[in-house]
Design goal:
Layout (H helix, E strand, L loop, with lengths): L1 H13 L1 H4 L8 E3 H11 L3 E9 L2 E7 L6 E7 L3 E8 L11
Antiparallel strand pairs: 1-5, 2-3, 3-4, 4-5
Length: 97
């Protein structure tokens, strides 16, 4: 929970205009700034990606140091949004369940 608060505060600090936005808008930013925040600030690594539609790419990011994960939705217009996040990520094993 503390890391989620840190994530929201980081976004507000790196993009001051978002601080005045509604809380539901805080999780979106320019794709380049979002990438920088995920990799440099949070130390997250992209674990997978896939097309949602011709204009939208979904990515799963995981922080190996604490197991927190985020699903980032990237739009063709250069905007990215964190659409889900959680804790205790466990990589799945290939093969039948």
């Amino acid at each position: 929970m503390i890391n989620r608060l840190f994530l929201v505060l980081t976004i507000c600090v790196t993009a001051p205009t978002l601080a005045r936005a509604k809380m539901s808008d805080v999780s979106c930013d320019d794709s380049a700034r979002m990438l920088s925040m995920l990799t440099e600030v949070l130390g997250a690594e992209r674990q997978g990606m896939g097309l949602r539609d011709p204009e939208t790419m979904l990515e799963v990011w995981v922080s190996p140091r604490d197991g927190e994960w985020m699903i980032v939705q990237n739009y063709a217009n250069g905007t990215s949004c964190i659409v889900a996040m959680g804790e205790n990520w466990e990589a799945g094993l290939a093969g039948p369940a």
